[in-house]
Amino acid sequence: MTTTAPPRMLTGDRPTGRLHLGHYVGSIANRRALQHSYQSYFIIADLHMLTTKNTREDIARSAGNARDMVLDSLAAGLEPDLAVFYLQSAIPEVMELNTLFQNLVTVPRLERVPSLKEMARDAGKEEMPYGLLGYPVLQAADILCVKAHAVPVGKDNAAHVEIAREIARRFNHLYGETFPVPELISAEVPSLVGTDGQAKMSKSIGNAIYLSDSPDEVRRKVRGMYTDPKRVRADVPGTVAGNPVFVYHDAFNPDTAEVDDLKERYRTGRVGDVEVKTKLADAINAFLDPMRERRARFEGEPGLVERLVVEGTERTREVVRQTVGEVRAAMGLDAVYAAFTAESRRPVSA
Q: Carries keyword Cytoplasm (predicted)?
């Protein structure tokens, strides 16, 4: 009797800080929902981190950030017996795949990826580093090294996944069917505006509500949220569409009747920002409370995160080694050296 292995899912984050509500709506909610249907690989993308943060201090901080990321992920609902967490830099075979894949995509194609310029700008880079231009190629290596079938990521990574799909198709066309063409799993809420109302929620900008924030921190951040700047008093009709406070209500407040009432009174100047924000803070804290409980439970297990990362990395490396072997065989690279080896062992004629 043969059994079919479940399909694989690959996603993850750079270890540059704690995970926030934007991560949750953009990807973690899907990771949580899909983990029972897929073999779930979660990358701690410390090589990707180097494209914008590569000082010795950045690298030294990455271990603590990675630990927080794993705890945040477990707190948000990923199960330790299902999730395979692994450290990208500890699997050198991924870099070999990256080198091979670089030849299957052009520079103009990479230059059309809109998020790369945004990443360079957010990192204060006047010119784009070579590694940042190749970010989607390394990401393709991440996805294809475990032969992922599904990639649940946020809106800003959608174009990167399309590069991975193109590379998979190109490789299969040139060398034979080797990779599944990964499917992008889109989020119901594609992105979340930051608390400043000026850009998407981001660790680097500092406009984020973190999954690990305390109730008081949430209330403080919500009180300071950007709202309708033209509304100087509670009796002035306000704008709901695009208003960050109501974007968050829609995303995190399950009481739709309350939200609809707040919107109607806001439009007609019959509710103040204080009430709207107080109820939003209550809703977000109610949303985060179960995560706080889970995080405390997992933090109470000494060595859990370290064990998950080490075991997950070793397990993933075995999978990646097998993939690289298949890639080299499909391309004929091993046959080239084998021919030299065979010739070198031939007896020399007298």
A: no
8-state DSSP, 25: I
The secondary structure of 61-125 as a DSSP string is HHHHHHHHHHHHHHHTT--TTTEEEEEGGG-THHHHHHHHHGGGS-HHHHHT-HHHHHHHHHTT-
The answer to the question of residue 148 being in a domain is: yes
**Chain center to CA of 93:** 21
Domain enclosing residue 122, as ranges: 8-193+302-341
Cα within 13 Å of Cα(54), Cβ side: 10
**Gap between the Cα atoms of 99 and 86, Å rounded:** 21
Q: Are 131 and 34 in contact (CB under 8 A)?
A: no
225 and 267 part of one domain: yes
> 6 or 214: whose pLDDT is higher?
214
Return the SS3 of 307. Answer: helix
Show the tokens assigned to 347: 């007896």
Evaluate if pTM is beyond 0.85.
Answer: yes
- Find all residues with CB under 8 Å of 290, minimum gap 6, and list them: none
Interatomic CA distance for residues 128 and 249, integer angstroms = 37
- Look up the CATH number of the domain holding residue 242: 1.10.240.10
- pLDDT-based confidence at residue 190 (cuts at 50, 70, 90): low
pLDDT tens per residue, range 93-107: 999 999 999 999 999
The total of structural domains in the chain comes to 2
Residue 91: alpha-carbon gap to chain centroid: 18
